[in-house]
Records
---
Amino acid sequence: IYGYAGTTLRIDLTDEKIVKEPLKQEWVDGYIGGRGFTAKILFDENPPEVDPYEGDNIFIIAMGPLSGHLLPASGKTHFCTKSPATGGYGDSNMGGHFGVNMKYAGYDVMILKGKAKQQSYIFIEDDNVEIRPAQQYWGKGSTQVEEELKKELGEDFQILTIGPAGENLVKFACISHDFGRQAGRIGIGAVLGSKNIKAIAVKGTKSIPVFDPAGLLQKGKETYAACRAKPGFTAWTPQGTAGITDWCNNVGALPTRNFKTSYCDYADKINGQAILKELKITDKGCFACPIPCGKYGFAKTKLGNAYVEGPEYETLSLLGSNCEVKDIHEIAYLNYICDELGLDTCSGGAVVSFALECYEKGLISKEDMGMDVKFGDLESIVHILKIITERKGIGNALADGVKAAAEVVGNDSDKFAIHVKGLEWTGYESRNAPGMMLGYMTADIGAHHGRCWVLGNDVAGSADAGNVTDLITSEQNTTTLSKAKHEHVVPIVLKSQHTRPAFDILGTCRLQYMEIGLETDYYEDLFYTITGKKIKWDELLKLSEKIWTLNRMYNFREISDFGRKYDYPPARFYEEPIPDGPNKGHFIALDVIEQMLDEYYSARGWDNNGYPTEETLINFGLA
Ligand code: SF4
């Protein structure tokens, strides 16, 4: 099939059975690739109500039709499994060079099932696939193992690893690759750990059939040139995501002190400029990326020094201001510690800040914590990250995320456990941002900015969406907002929620479109030269909508009491006005949240409990 390697690799770790089968035409025709494949496969093949850590929970890696070709940023790899963090649909993607090599080895999709009898790693070199012992790597840090495996196998192998957090089933353990790229959030690394798999090494040397090679070469060149000609190229590339830090602080969206407030007076010490001045050695990009957003640097702290990629904005905000760390070297060092332990820096920062607030309020004892801890103290934060990884003392509860930890801590701590569906909120405080708030609330995997990002519309308004800031309630004005204003929010949230999966389906990075404004026509043309099939961007958006509906159904199937109550933000966001900064006094009242949910469900064709109606399921061919 043009654009695809053509094979699905199935590995049953329990029976040590390796099966290669032709890529299903039904998947290609109905779901195209990447996130489309994973949503379909997880729904169809994962046993209903399986425990995420049982061997039967499948672990999927999928590439898209645009992956691995000579076009900008075609190196995204998509991972999926039932999430231990939420109990529902979970996926994550990662840049670097792993998936491209998997495709060059001949596989569009890899599905792992079962549990290896001993600690193992998977070795793939084109047709040769083996499950190899990995006792010598168990217990070691992610980056260290990547380095050692490259020494053992050769530099041209692409390696993904888990750290000790994945081995110990921490529910926000991630997968690491390429010395600083991660697939994180939903506990994907813990599921690999539960299967006794420490790493996967792959090297591929085959070709992928293309419909019009000369046309692709021409279009690929044009697309690179277009990226580099955009004004956004010079604005975005030098700092990458860290470049947004000051803006977020100035609009009052920078999470600070466990989302107590949304502004800090030291943003200039932890922003993109600080990275360039203090840390950066070189830019670093994923496969075929013309706008490398990775910043590789060197951090020096009183606890040690480290080479590290990052920190990106999410890490700056969640391990930085949200934990009150005011020094860019210290944030970068914490980034390094998380990478080595195999912890997601978003959830890691959010869980640590929750623990610090609990400790400050006297809800966690010094004995349970293992030492005296405080906001802003590097030693305290490193200690908490380590007890989480080792599941020691209160670290055992924290390792299950803030939702579960709040149940252990009690005393209304759930009000400041900042999550949706069990997934910690990422780096955008949203009491001043109704669109972001709704986007986080309704995301299939839980609170994740990767599912929706409309902060620009929220705080600045826009020509097509109108200014939605009137939805925000202040202490002086708690009246419900007009329907006219609500109607601006849902369309912009839906548009963002549908645009993002399109890139995950195709197998490319979305930042060329989102950050520098590359037009979607390029993707339509590239798709045609690669696959020989015509597709309109609107058709991709329609598929995105179908996937959102399918994943919603997956969550209803897997979580017995799933429904509207899983779509609310934490109480802090509707009960506590922001105490200071540019949005002092602001919050979004619960009745506004209820109205936004009603309008969102209605626009999606879901009932009042967020369950897709029969008509909606029929419309998408999902009945
Ligand atoms: Fe990777 Fe950043 Fe380039 Fe996207 S923009 S492909 S994340 S380096």
---
Amino acid sequence: MSSPTLKVGIVGLGRLGQRHAINLAQRVPNAKVVAACSPVPAELDWAASTLGIATGYADYDALLAHPGLDAVFLVTPTSLHADQIIAALRAGKHVFCEKPLSLDLADCLKVEAEAARHPQLTIMIGFVRRFDASYHDAQQKIAQGLIGKPYLVRSQTCDQNDPSGAFMRFAPTSGGIFLDCSVHDIDLARWLLGNPVPKRVYASGTNAIHTGLQAFGDVDNGLATVEFSDGSMASFMASRTMAHGHETLTEVFGTGGRLAVGSNPRLNRVEISDAHGVRNECTPDFYARFADAFLIEAQEFTDAALGRRTLSLTLHDATEATRIGLAMTQAMREARPVEF
Ligand code: NAI
């Protein structure tokens, strides 16, 4: 008997959508991409010619009506996530959706309410770092008590500077650096600290290079501190101006020790000794750092939708990440602490 297959529609074939499409089509054994959806004809052509996805839809509702479709993989602009998730659930489809769930807390809660009406459907928001082998190991070690009681997470997402400023096209809709980048660190902090309840947030930021971000109330470097009601804390940095590459670093301090993931953001194990000293090359971008995790994420979503595993990551975790990210953004813009 052949093993069951999840028939997936990929929605959004931009910067990240193409990566997900390649993984689903070529590297997730129990998934089959049966259709693609994008308003851009060239992207549908790419899916057909590169991956053999013959059926393309410009219209999302038409994709949802594709015969036999089991699940959608949403890699669309964040502003579309909530409505697209709700439409998929109402059409009886399992849903994977990229982070963040939404930039609007009321929309997050609407999605949670709709999901509660469809308990048989799997829904996963793509907090990819939870599927990274090193973060997974760190979380297991903390749960086993290796560092005692964890009380402080210090975590950063720092992107290499793009002198062309191409990322500026996302500035009007990204929600700002905390919701776009730190949302990953927020999710990690909650996970590694055992889901504490946020109490108060402080935040500030600066524009070191990309001063045009100011027009959108955004910064190219941001700092935030979150206090939780159980006394634990988290401190976040996000940057778009690193000279050396992409650096994601997380430290967890416990009463009996400290764990760090990513202290050396090296590209690989090659060590170069030359006139500059002894050094490694750095991961250039988030995908180089988390490529394996993106694949594991897609495999785990597929297995969960096929009923072969349960997910530890919940929709409520995604709501909480948005809630904390919004408070950080407000604290920075209003230059004052924000209470929950
Ligand atoms: P992008 O702008 O490169 O791609 C967006 C895609 O959505 C394009 O293919 C566009 O044609 C398509 N699209 C637009 N309107 C649509 C509609 N109505 N129906 C169907 N498709 C539509 O954006 P990118 O960078 O790929 O980001 C997409 C999402 O992925 C965002 O939510 C972003 O936050 C998230 N993301 C997550 C990352 C992670 O580390 N997990 C990293 C980068 C992005």
